[in-house]
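Predict the holo structure. Ligand: fe (ii) ion.
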Amino acid sequence: MGLPLTGCHSYEHYVSDLERAEAFYTKSLGFKRIGVSTPAAEAQNGMRRLVMAGGPKIHVILTQPLTDWSVAAGYLRLHPEGIGFLNFRVSSLDKAVAFLKPRRATFLYEPQVTRDDHGEIAQIAMATALDDVNYRLIDDSRYDGFGPSFHMEQKAGSYVSPLGFTDIDHFTANVRSLQPLTSFYRDVLGFEKFWEIEFHTNDVNPNLPVGSGLYSEVFWHPASGIKFANNEPIAPFFRNSQIDIYCRDNHGSGVQHVALLCPNILKSMDQLQSQGCKFLAATDSYYEKVPDRLKKSGFKGTIREDMKALASKDILIDGSEKGYLLQIFSHELSRQFGDRKAGPLFFEVIQREGDEGFGGGNFRALFETIEVDQIAMHKVAAQLPLETI
Ligand SMILES: [Fe+2]
């Protein structure tokens, strides 16, 4: 028996400016506020929280501290704004705990069972190998609300996104050294390895005086389909890797991006771009290389979308023997807002047409564009001296 996960419940995003964050999710990403923390919960937790729905299976708890002693204030003393909890549904909390305890899961508290007008909900939280990011496991199979801390204005699960988002495809996290996180997913959670890639710009041109790279692996929970992509920086130019830069900007490891799944990315991007969300641009040469790259990847079908339309929206294309995928990455929130305190979290929008990968063929393009983004923020633009004695 594995961990009885059934899906993603929500994630919790800690912010210092709730109004700004709510406006961004609402105006730029097409989310809607569907719930708010009750006065009793606010007094008890010292935090104001909003439930934002981004689609039928996409829910975000936006949390701002009201007091110095709240968990959100503790997080924000150590990090810029970012994701502090990933919340998952389980079919039985007892079975989840029975699975995790002998595997040395580190719980933050004992299982909590709450009963109210909506029924009975059981939950537990656990530490992860991702610094201050925690997991919550929630059994709400006998509960017809979102959670006992919230007054809901609309039922969770009923929101249809005007942008077409249907689900969270995956979360991606960055760490400086991957092995403890690998062990957490494999040995504690019992997940299986799904995919991996190692990429360095020097693989393409070994003579470059600068460059950057990463190793990335995806773990998944086959029964629920939940996937996590995890990245570490690799040498040479370790400290120039976007992964190491993220860890410095975030003051530790954390969630780098949330991938939002949609059935028609061209339609979604029409609205996203007009609503002010800023996305990474792709170079013209990127699109010239696409047909060759797809052929080498084993992709034999045809891309249904018009290539010119994809290029006009900077949408990236990747393929495999199984099909293709279309994806695009937003700027980091710190850049969206022009404020470092907003943190290095960003969003991916992805449409899958049979390809179950993560855009490995796009890593080079992504690296080039993210690094332009980071240079624009005056982070690391040049090779740093090696840290020898
Ligand atoms: Fe991704």
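The longest helix spans residues 363-376. The two ends are 50 Å apart (CA to CA).
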